[in-house]
Structure formats: structure tokens, C-alpha cells
Amino acid sequence: MVQALNHAKHGVDILSGTRVRTHFARPNWKEVFSSIARKHPNSTVGVFYCGIPTVAKELKKQAQEMSQKTSTRFEFHKEHF
């Protein structure tokens, strides 16, 4: 709550010191993909991810589902470093 109030008043994130507000927990991926699909109909969007397999599985699933439900085609790519 303090973080939100500070950001609203000063426009600066209390944790990072930047204008971008820090959000905790995982994003609502369905909401993120839906928003991108609305903004980019009939387009191909690359989804690149490098990290733990659990999140990769979730992102791949969302990419496949949203590609079937919308005119936007999401191509998932898992990066390995």
C-alpha cells in the first residue's frame, strides 16, 4: 500500500527508483495475451522466454490457446542459455 501511495504521489517506484511500478507475483498471462491480441489482430507475435520450466509450460499453453481463439498467431520460443 505504501508503494502504491508513493508511486501515485511522486510518480516513482519505492523499490526500483524508476517510474515503472513494481508488481509482485506472476502476471495474469491470459489477460496479457488477450490484450496483445486485441492490439495486434491478424498479426504474428513472438513469445520468447528463458527461465523455469513451469512458467515456460504456462506461456506455451497460453500462446497455443490464444492462437486458436483469436486472429493473432502467437509463436512460443524457449530460450536456453
From TrEMBL:
Chain segments annotated as coiled-coil in the UniProt record: none
Domain called Ferric reductase NAD binding: residue spans: 6-63
Keywords, comma-separated and alphabetical: Oxidoreductase
Single GO molecular function: oxidoreductase activity
Pfam families registered for this protein in UniProt: NAD_binding_6
Keyword Aminoacyl-tRNA synthetase: no
The keyword Oxidoreductase belongs to this UniProt entry's keyword annotation: yes
Protein name: Ferric reductase NAD binding domain-containing protein
